[in-house]
Amino acid sequence: MAQPQKSFDAYFKSAFTVDNVIFGFDNGQLKILLIRRNEAPFDNYWGLPGYFVREGEDLDAAAQRVLREVTGLKDVYLEQVKAFGTPGRHDFGRVITIAYYSLVKVEDFELHAAGVAQEVAWHSVSDIESLAFDHEEIVQVAFHRLKRSIRSRPIGFELLPPAFTLTDLQHLYEAIWELDLEKRNFRKKILSMNLLKDLGRSQKGVAHRPAKLYSFDEGRYRELEEDGFNFELKEGKRK
Amino acid sequence: MAQPQKSFDAYFKSAFTVDNVIFGFDNGQLKILLIRRNEAPFDNYWGLPGYFVREGEDLDAAAQRVLREVTGLKDVYLEQVKAFGTPGRHDFGRVITIAYYSLVKVEDFELHAAGVAQEVAWHSVSDIESLAFDHEEIVQVAFHRLKRSIRSRPIGFELLPPAFTLTDLQHLYEAIWELDLEKRNFRKKILSMNLLKDLGRSQKGVAHRPAKLYSFDEGRYRELEEDGFNFELKEGKRK
DNA sequence: ACAAAAGTGTTCGTACTACACCCATGC
DNA sequence: GCATGGGTGTAGTACGAACACTTTTGT
Lengths: 239, 239
Hints:
The structure is a homodimer of 239-residue chains.
Chain A: E1 15-26, E2 29-37, E3 46-47, E4 50-52, H1 59-71, E5 77-84, E6 95-103, E7 117-124, H2 135-152, H3 166-177, E8 179-180, H4 183-192, E9 196-202, E10 212-216, H5 218-226, E11 237-238
Parallel strand pairs in A: 1-6
Antiparallel strand pairs in A: 1-2, 1-4, 2-3, 2-7, 5-6, 8-11, 9-10
Chain A binds a DNA duplex (27 and 27 nucleotides) through residues 165-167, 182-185, 187-189, 192, 203, 205-212, 234-235.
């Protein structure tokens, strides 16, 4: 199907990148993994891990690769947010970036600077400023998307260790929604969904009554999903 | 901020397009505007209206332009869906497409073929097959997105004429969700939202009791929105 | 008078809200 | 024994689900 391609050459002069908003939940706080760039443009600025997509590389694969370069993790929860392509957002020419967000368990890996990063660190979502390119906007849009998605799909578990307490889970929702939730109602609601497996174990060595540990019951989720299930949490007051 | 750009040249060889899933509501049915292409690749195939984004043109602006070329409309409701960029999806080289969907009122314009279209027509969402490129997938994803978005924002009104009946509105929701809704509950719910202005007029010349006409009260919506309002409709049985 | 869609009210069950106290552990 | 968070029950309310009949118009 080779066609008179000549006249289209003028269009084949753009580049595209992926940028990844990597969320982690650490110490009751929702965090984002940022890198400090060692490459122009925006040399020395903090920004999202991301890079040019290679020839023949799928977009999702590129996002996974970028994530692997920073965290060493593979097969991580990852979702496309949208494309950002304002003209002039990149000094080198027309560069569209495809933004992704991923959810990782912070205890699964050690940070190590690599690629265009001279430094890698977790930053609180709430105090992010003067990032490279339009990365602040990307972070905002991704965060907004996460808030929404977690309402209708149980993706929050991706951010927690395999065994967690109900309070951990509640704090996670509170951090993402920036709300305070009511303990008893939260627990009733979550448990009534039957998505948690009681592991029969408890916390050890805490100076109070130890909490039971749970894990996410993926099999159970798939059952419910097929049946047109809709995960949703409502109540909550503004913080 | 000119930088050692040389080594990046290899990345600046891609093109990107916008493709627009234009939804319209006609005669109780949800439809999509498709064009029949008169240009390679996929000459003669039906596909989404779309084209290469111009140098210096913003993505949203490109999507508006494409829409204007087919419908003549400007300032239409438009939302980015996501980017599609599987390698090999386009014969001419690496082409990423940014998919949009728009909501239009079908009675606002006449169709006229233009640009790469030899023919333009409305197609029922339910019988769409063998489109150009990966456009079938794009349609599915856009449709899915519309179903979701209309739950939490009153964008449905974009598809209806300025004055409509409650039954029109109900049929619209039924078409989008592929559900049957219960008349009394639907009306109660919609009216209790206070988003409709009773126009004090009625249908004319129908062979039954004429229905009252309503319009969407945009001012009222903005008030509610600021106050953290959440538009939502739930009930419904699978068709 | 008949056909066709508009319009409306009530009952029932469920699910969200709000709220206060006892329990298990470490120090 | 005290401090710390874990864990639970209940009453009130609001909202969604289900359901059938009367009204207004054109022909």
